[in-house]
Write a structure and sequence with these properties.
single chain, 208 residues, alpha+beta, nine-stranded antiparallel beta sheet, two-stranded antiparallel sheet, 4 helices, 13 strands, globular
Length: 208
Amino acid sequence: MRLLNDLKLSRNKETRARRTGATCSDEPSVTRPVEWKLSVPGRPTLTVHDNRWENGERDLTLYQPTVVPEMPAALSNLHNRLRSGIAGSRGRAELRIMLYPTYVDGRGRPRIKKSLTTEELVGWVGLRPLRKLTEREGVTLEPAFDRPGLPDVDLEKPQDEKPLQHALFFPAEDDKTPVTAFVHFRIVPVLRHIGWLRPDWSRPEGEE
């Protein structure tokens, strides 16, 4: 599936081997990841793993292969780091992934932004990707936590008054939405930073 003009995402239909590791909560467990390939013309193919851990946890990560192709440090430093957890939300049937966009700091290290106004989130991720994600059946963009006083999340009129943590809620059987979202908010900003994707001048350059 084409995410941007220069970016394609496809699922690897081969069954991956079981491997041991630590979950986001640092618990030892075993996973047989669902693997996705991310292709940029003229660049090494990147691998995203959707880890379904046997202890019930789940996360997405830019997987680090045994031999890492030559690439800029900012992208290399993203491998196996800044994972995104996928979890249920109390009182809801859907699953949730937090929308924490990546930026690259002055030392070339990827970092994440957690609290943003909705207008700022649009600036980081892009209005078109967010609209395409929320056009999927059963997918909504909302405040991550049900707390009083939080503004509505409206992509038609994104508010720029109160920072909050945003999350994407999606049906449990929907495998594409969390991976697509992960690519847009975690990997694409780094690809733009290193020049592997064309710049989008509507987005911030980064923060220290």
